[in-house]
Design brief:
This protein is an alpha+beta fold. It has one helix spanning 76-129, and strands at 44-48, 54-58, 146-148, 151-153. The chain has a two-stranded antiparallel sheet. Strands 3-4 form a two-stranded antiparallel ribbon. The model has no long low-confidence stretch (mean pLDDT 75).
C-alpha cells in the first residue's frame, strides 16, 4: 500500500521523474444543466495570495452554532459537596452534644446509686451495731413446745 523507501541514489546516477498525465476534457461526461433560480445573488470574494496570485470565488458563510447555556459560576457538584459537608458538621455537632448529655446522665445516675448505697449501708450498720438496746422493737419469747399424737402440749 505504501511505497517501499529506497536509499538515495549515488551522485553520479540520473533520476527519472514521472509526471501524472492530466485528464482530457473530452473524456469527462458533462452533467445536464438544470436551470435553477438562486434566492439571492451570492457575493464574490477575491483574495491576493503572498506570491501575487488572485483567487476569486464565492464567499461561504459558515453557520454559527447556537450559544451554549450560561454555566453558573460554581458547579452544582461543588455546591452539593459543600452542603453535604455543612450538613455532616451539623449532625456531628448534634451527635457530640447527644453523647455529652448521655455521659452526664450516666454520671448522675452513678452518683445517685452510690449515695443510696452509702445511706442504706449506714442505716444497716446502725441497726446492726445498736442491737444491745431493747427499748425499741418487738420482743418475742420462745419456749419449748411438744407435739404428741398430733396434739399440741405447750
Amino acid at each position: 500500500m505504501y511505497p517501499v523507501p529506497t536509499p538515495a541514489p549515488p551522485a553520479g546516477r540520473a533520476v527519472n521523474l514521472h509526471q501524472p498525465t492530466p485528464l482530457v476534457p473530452a473524456a469527462v461526461i458533462a452533467a445536464p444543466v438544470m436551470p435553477v433560480q438562486p434566492g439571492a445573488v451570492p457575493t464574490v470574494a477575491s483574495i491576493v495570495l503572498p506570491d501575487g496570485q488572485v483567487v476569486t470565488g464565492y464567499a461561504i458563510h459558515h453557520t454559527q452554532p447556537e450559544p451554549l447555556a450560561a454555566k453558573p459560576p460554581v458547579s452544582r457538584t461543588a455546591v452539593n459537596v459543600a452542603l453535604g459537608g455543612v450538613g455532616f458538621l451539623a449532625v456531628s455537632g448534634g451527635l457530640l452534644l447527644l453523647t455529652t448529655f448521655i455521659a452526664a446522665l450516666t454520671a448522675l445516675v452513678t452518683q445517685l446509686i452510690t449515695l443510696a448505697a452509702v445511706i442504706f449501708g449506714g442505716w444497716i450498720a446502725v441497726q446492726v451495731f445498736s442491737a444491745n438496746r431493747h427499748d425499741t422493737g418487738t420482743t418475742v419469747h420462745i419456749r419449748k413446745a411438744t407435739f404428741k399424737r398430733n396434739h399440741f402440749h405447750g
